[in-house]
Amino acid sequence: MFYHDKKLQYQVRVETPNPAFAKLLQQAIGGIEGEIRVCLQYLFQAWGSRGPAKYRDMLLDTGTEEISHIEMLSTAVALNLEGATNELKDKVAGENPIVSSILGGMDPRHVLSSGLAAMAVDSNGVPFNGSWVVGSGNIAADMYANVMAESTGRVLATRLWELTDDAGMKDMLAFLIARDTMHQNQWLAVIEDLGGVGSNLPIPNTFPMSDQVREFEYAFVSTNIEQPPAPDARWASGPSIDGKGEFKYVYASPLGQEPVLGPPDVKGYAQEQQMTGGLDKGILENIKDTILP
Amino acid sequence: MFYHDKKLQYQVRVETPNPAFAKLLQQAIGGIEGEIRVCLQYLFQAWGSRGPAKYRDMLLDTGTEEISHIEMLSTAVALNLEGATNELKDKVAGENPIVSSILGGMDPRHVLSSGLAAMAVDSNGVPFNGSWVVGSGNIAADMYANVMAESTGRVLATRLWELTDDAGMKDMLAFLIARDTMHQNQWLAVIEDLGGVGSNLPIPNTFPMSDQVREFEYAFVSTNIEQPPAPDARWASGPSIDGKGEFKYVYASPLGQEPVLGPPDVKGYAQEQQMTGGLDKGILENIKDTILP
Amino acid sequence: MFYHDKKLQYQVRVETPNPAFAKLLQQAIGGIEGEIRVCLQYLFQAWGSRGPAKYRDMLLDTGTEEISHIEMLSTAVALNLEGATNELKDKVAGENPIVSSILGGMDPRHVLSSGLAAMAVDSNGVPFNGSWVVGSGNIAADMYANVMAESTGRVLATRLWELTDDAGMKDMLAFLIARDTMHQNQWLAVIEDLGGVGSNLPIPNTFPMSDQVREFEYAFVSTNIEQPPAPDARWASGPSIDGKGEFKYVYASPLGQEPVLGPPDVKGYAQEQQMTGGLDKGILENIKDTILP
Amino acid sequence: MFYHDKKLQYQVRVETPNPAFAKLLQQAIGGIEGEIRVCLQYLFQAWGSRGPAKYRDMLLDTGTEEISHIEMLSTAVALNLEGATNELKDKVAGENPIVSSILGGMDPRHVLSSGLAAMAVDSNGVPFNGSWVVGSGNIAADMYANVMAESTGRVLATRLWELTDDAGMKDMLAFLIARDTMHQNQWLAVIEDLGGVGSNLPIPNTFPMSDQVREFEYAFVSTNIEQPPAPDARWASGPSIDGKGEFKYVYASPLGQEPVLGPPDVKGYAQEQQMTGGLDKGILENIKDTILP
Amino acid sequence: MFYHDKKLQYQVRVETPNPAFAKLLQQAIGGIEGEIRVCLQYLFQAWGSRGPAKYRDMLLDTGTEEISHIEMLSTAVALNLEGATNELKDKVAGENPIVSSILGGMDPRHVLSSGLAAMAVDSNGVPFNGSWVVGSGNIAADMYANVMAESTGRVLATRLWELTDDAGMKDMLAFLIARDTMHQNQWLAVIEDLGGVGSNLPIPNTFPMSDQVREFEYAFVSTNIEQPPAPDARWASGPSIDGKGEFKYVYASPLGQEPVLGPPDVKGYAQEQQMTGGLDKGILENIKDTILP
Amino acid sequence: MFYHDKKLQYQVRVETPNPAFAKLLQQAIGGIEGEIRVCLQYLFQAWGSRGPAKYRDMLLDTGTEEISHIEMLSTAVALNLEGATNELKDKVAGENPIVSSILGGMDPRHVLSSGLAAMAVDSNGVPFNGSWVVGSGNIAADMYANVMAESTGRVLATRLWELTDDAGMKDMLAFLIARDTMHQNQWLAVIEDLGGVGSNLPIPNTFPMSDQVREFEYAFVSTNIEQPPAPDARWASGPSIDGKGEFKYVYASPLGQEPVLGPPDVKGYAQEQQMTGGLDKGILENIKDTILP
Q1: In which family does this protein belong, per the annotation (chains A, B, C, D, E, F) (predicted)?
Q2: F272 vs F288: CA distance, rounded Å
């Protein structure tokens, strides 16, 4: 069950409202790298957690923390939008064509749709999409999904930090960047808690290795028709990361057949020519009489 | 530049066509764990690759291989759908209410829209979405995105393997499961090639650690109001995974203020009561006369 | 800032797991009538709230409660899915065509993608969409958006209640149905708190009535070409609901012109025939030589 | 059945074409507050209307009127885009970096995709989405959905009115604002026609009140951990809006259990460690031999 | 401006309600091949029509007709759903696992969300998407978009006709199939009206042929690495369809360079190793000191 | 199976990087007129091809070529973005309000999300959508879908050509424009290869003409209530394009009934008033006691 108080997890100050920066911040709210995604992802993973309870508890702790991050960023968007309506009006209505186009730096829906507040969308106004909430039921797969989310999330936060000179905004982002540092370490710590990379790979580690086609389980397949020599790289030779095989480097060549599908289903309403080869209209008519009612 | 031949990378056989399994296979084609996603993800990462060329070359090799996987799965869907139209007709038109509902096991669009062929959708018919194609420009973040994709992808493939008794389908999936084993190892091998986990974390490793709010960079924040003791877990104490700090366990408490936003913009057409406190209609009227034209 | 404990707001019991009911419950989680929508809607309205603070506080209270509802429903989905993998396997792999199609009653992604847990999708597997999160900055418009959400939400919950015989599920839904009763009353109570329907309509009440085209502000426009007589209905005559006018009943007829757009832009690459009327190829060639470089 | 003539419902004039305003107008065409949504919403409600015929007839009248509104706005977009290609060319191609960025004020697809015409998208180019078309089969729920659509729609129209100085555009919007006034009153008049708010709440009013968990049907639940006193507000005490109960104010506390899910399904390919607690690799191997084939 | 009456364009009868067929019919309403798409497509093309007025008038006529088709199909869905709630209840609640799964043949939202009425979604419940509404401003491109829509639409309608034995439904579909016959002919008649295929190709015909890279304008490029001989096919040799060139058959070979992108932007927060080659941690540290603040 | 080399199909040069043009180019990558769509469309048509093998081979050739086009355009986007981060920083952070708004000309996600590389989105940042990938199983319908894709694609490419003065970009686009010329001719050549327009229309040509409602198969239906005379146009009289009938021009009038749906399902939780006419509360109560448990 969930509770709240009325304060923010960390202070949010905006010295100079900037509607263009409000637009950029939306990426950290409703974008695929954003906080709604990690919030729902950790909570759904918690709510579906099967196995040792400590993982569920941890996911619940951090999923709840992320709600507070959405709150901080939404507050930051609203503060950056203070006064934006008048500014937009001047721009759109203005006679000066250069000035009139300044609208572009804003999300117009911040004025038109939300009345100077954050929305559940990304920096282009594309809505948050529930498909981004990954919880597979396999804890190792989920931890890598979480590392990925916190990695792209921290990259995003550093870029936002770079794009503002507002001291308040830099401070808020510096806090969020620190939290992403922890969370990257945290999810990888779960992998260690589970015995480390080797004992978890390949994910899922419950599928019997003997049931996969073993010849290709550690082969790097080069699809380059020029067949260049193997590079001097970790993935081209030597022991595999999971310690269960040796990398090898092979050139792609087909092992399968040329696929042949059956003719179109008579009731599926393809063209006659697909069923007969399309060569002879007279034959087509005969066939049609025969095969079609 | 890209080329093809007419054969498949690995053989695709279907002993007993099963439209219900065709529907399930769509998850591996157009789902978020599917092959269109990894194909475009690796290719877009290659096309945007900046830095040492060997990473670009490798991404191009594997991105191209994934096109062949989409081709294999699409062939498998078409073969599983042979004869499905007549079967569906019997079901929908049948008088027997039990029989008439068998439609549910299929994707109806396999008959209605594609004429017994694969589509760019998932197992519920939800279209592939380009937002899933992740390429951040930061190679470590991208590698974890790729590990995640291959981990959820292999989990999916093993579940599909479990859900069929068709020897041909099991064989095809056993090949794809092996390739996912390699690709999980491959992307983690890139992390090693880049110096290992420690020298890559936190991602991005180019943001100065000193610019983040250091007090929180390795703190696990428990948001549980019951404030339970720290668990005996890898993420609650001890050295951080990146070797740059010590985990600590803290209880959530607000560091920020209660947020206060300005009043609604007069031109933003909020309700009068929002601007005046909503208490006194007479006052409202006066204000309206004053502040609104 | 947000907190949690480890218990549920209300008990969630499933006596007989039923994967088909798990699919239906997804509508109440990730559907447009569902709990993710109301949760984010109330929280975003709170975070963007401008005007008297008591409305913000209330929105925060109820938005937080809704997280607990997502948690209850997600738990219910997971409990209904216990054991579903084996069941699905039997169905897909079975030789009996009737049995093999039972898959249809489930969301296949509950097995393939989530490992028997809830997802952020609706009952057809269509992902939650952030566009549903409405917060306009106008409190009266937002309250009606909230009444609408709780009304369609309660209709959904009663239909789910009707479709199950499981005593645990009926009990959980009976609780959620009660909460929707409160929330419908609550949002309409805000309208009263703001002075009642009359003083809030038309929304926004800050736009000067004199600036709209007054002739049509209370006219019901019948677009029926048969021009039937006005019905004996509340909206066809008598005082308007806001008490600021009288309903009238009029027949549609155009007040505007036939629209005439300019010719295509020469650089916009329309067809030649659009620019010349398409009548005379010789003329077209001449024009092309002239107007195109 | 539907008919048309060639004139517009109300005149549409643009004195000074403004591509930036064309972009803003798209919100009123293809946005969630826009006319495609209300048009399809009222028509689908009409086509699915069950019960007294007068509601169906009314919905058909107004749904048809809304097509004419889409037509007016689409005409306005096209007129605002006259001449925009050349302007855009100058901007993108220009050497002056300030000038070259003016593109931002436009929707680039107005030039690239539609050839200076309206599209079925919102002001950020996000496509119209059919999920917004609400028709629940419960007439009271639908009426509140319609009030909400007309309230956010009128708020949008007033903001657009504010953002232009073009007399033609202001006139067209003043007409649409008047129609939204009527439609807000109209949908609430249906509630009165149905007996008023009290006899319709809670929606649906056909679910027996005795079947909901009565203790919580009029309780405001404060989730604030600081447990502030009840506010002096309409929703915290006094009779409920539907006249069927008394509001009360309570503090959140869990009534449910800590949820416990079963272990992962053996065939669902979770990690071994989820099934065994992850503590002992030797044990894991033994278990694997036993539980996995 | 638009009008309606209360009758249907063509009779809609359902002899035996079938919720499974209601689900299939949704493809013809809200699917990409469906009537909402063609309706909006023709109307938006009309509203943006530039050039001779007769094309606009025709598009308006047919776009309006398509509203009546949505109406017919929505009526058919509602009639097929009569009585479906009780049926669904039996299925979901039933103890018999075979019976309980019959849900799959229906769209669950027909009961849960719409109350036995049509929705703006396809046969899998995926919402209509405004991106499908194509109007390019080039009339020839638009006519081929319309031919395509009516061709996939008629294929869909014939498949639906095949899947029902209900005489009423077959009759309604036989009418819609006839209308699609007309509309295919109609859009191709516009091409003839514009001077025929030859004078319209390549579309747009206003781009000077001399400005494209002429060597490749009629070359079929085989990307098959086995370089098979040219097939005996219309597209491999002989005059081009537009009469402006000769088809030739060539084998793919790269004409471009190996792309080389610049190094990552220092402020874009890529990994250090991308900027330095990743070889030498000591060097990395030095560089970091230098290039990063 | 698929292969690649490391060069581009045609040279890609950017003389002056222009982030605004990078944004426009995204339409040709991830837009509905773009190269991901045609690539997947031709490949999925190939993989599902039933009937003579030569069509499959051809689709595979051209589908593979389109991957190379995505690669060229993605390279062009990356080259146009060189140096964009610093530029953006200046703009957002700048104090000068005019300068600070220049952001609008760019896709902010090119800096925030992709690190100066292409993404699978359109020019407004809306993600590619798999629903655009059309393959109906009917070859004639598919060929018109392909003509449509290449027609809107070539219109787009010419508009992009018009909007740049960069010699490298103009050269690349001139190549792509030539390829679109070929592909338009190619798909229409398939129609000829199949016997020409007449023998393929109406699509599908396997549905017996006698089974459609013949009275309306060549009738242009005018829905204009003013009933104007038939225009002098190819589609209003004379032989139909398929040579199987005569066009006629008729005025719309309803042939169907006024639809009457049954009352709401008692278990579907409509409002009482819908079931009783809403006239008499006493009666309602009685009915409720009777029909509702």
Answers
A1: Belongs to the manganese catalase family.
A2: 8
Chain A residues in contact with F121 by the CB 8 A cut-off are: 124
SS3 per-residue string spanning D172-240 = HHHHHHHHHHHHHHHHHHHHHHCCCHHHHCCCCCCCCHHHCCHHHCCEEEECECCCCCCCCCCCCCEEC
- A240, amino acid identity: S
User: Cis omega before residue E19 (within 30°)?
Assistant: no
Asked if residue D179 is part of any domain, the answer here is yes
Tell whether B243 and B107 lie within a shared domain.
no
Which of C52-61, D78-87, D154-163 is predicted with the least confidence, judged by mean pLDDT?
D78-87
Exposure string for B169-199, b = 16+ CB within 10 A, e = fewer = bbebbbbbbbbbbbbbbbbbbbbebbbebeb
Minimum distance, in Å, between the CA of residue A157 and any CA atom of chain E: 10
> CATH number of the domain that E88 lies in?
1.20.1260.10
Band of pLDDT at residue D265, cut at 50, 70 and 90 = confident
Q: How far apart are CA E240 and CA E214, in angstroms?
A: 14
Residue D6 region by backbone torsions, left for phi larger than 0, else alpha for psi between -120 and 50, else beta: alpha
Q: How many CB atoms lie within 10 A of CB C208?
A: 10
Residues sharing a CB contact under 8 Å with residue E93, sequence separation 6 or more, in sequence order: C163, C164, C165, E100
Let me know if A269 is exposed, middle or buried by CB neighbors in 10 A (0-12, 13-18, 19+).
buried
Q: Which residues 251-270 of F are in CB contact (within 8 Å) with B?
A: none
* Residue E110 assigned to a binding site: no
Query: Residue A250 belongs to what H/E stretch?
Result: strand A246-251
Do A179 and A216 belong together in one domain? Answer: no
Residues C112 and C194 in one domain: yes
Consult the annotation and say whether F171 binds a ligand: no
Among the listed residues E99, E92, E112, the one whose alpha carbon sits nearest the alpha carbon of residue C165 = E92
Quickly tell me which residue has 């005018």 as its tokens: F222
Nearest CA among B110, F284, B114, D135 for reference residue E81:
D135
List CB contacts of B257: < 8 A, sequence separation 6 or more.
A7, A8, A11, A12
Are F117 and B48 in contact by the 8 Å Cβ rule? The answer is yes
**Is residue A194 domain-shared with residue A237, that is, in the same domain?**
no
Q: Which pLDDT score, from 0 to 100, does residue C92 have? A: 57
Average confidence (pLDDT) per 10 residues, chain B, 293 residues: 97 92 96 98 98 96 98 97 69 44 73 96 98 97 98 97 94 98 98 95 95 95 96 96 96 95 89 71 43 35
Q: E127 and E98 share a domain?
A: yes
D203 found inside a domain: no
The complex's ipTM works out to 0.91
Which chains would you list as touching F if contact means 3+ CB atom pairs under 8 Å?
Answer: A, B, C, D, E
Instruction: For C169-210, write each residue's pLDDT tens digit.
Output: 999 999 999 999 999 999 999 999 999 999 999 999 999 999
Q: Which domain holds residue C171?
A: 19-198
**φ, ψ of residue B110 in degrees (nearest 5):** -60, -30
Give the CA count within 13 Å in the CB-facing half-sphere of F202. 33
With respect to residue D39, please indicate whether it lies within any of the assigned structural domains.
yes
Q: Who among F155, F159, F267 is closest to C162 (CB)?
A: F267
Could you give the count of Cα atoms lying within 13 Å of B107 in the half-sphere of its Cβ? 32
Asked if D124's CB is within 8 angstroms of F124's CB, the reply is yes
Contact F158 C269 (CB under 8 A): yes
What is the residue whose two structure tokens read 């968990």? D213
- Asked if E64 and E9 count as a contact pair (C-beta separation under 8 A), the reply is no
**Does F156 share its domain with F72?**
yes
Minimum distance, in Å, between the CA of residue A277 and any CA atom of chain D: 38
Euclidean distance between CA atoms E270 and A155, whole angstroms: 8
CA diameter of chain A: 82
User: Based on the domain organization, do F127 and F184 belong to the same domain?
Assistant: yes
**Do the beta carbons of residue E30 and residue D130 sit within 8 Å?**
yes
Whether residue D20 and residue A51 make contact (CB cut-off 8 A), yes or no, is no
Q: How many domains does chain B divide into?
A: 2
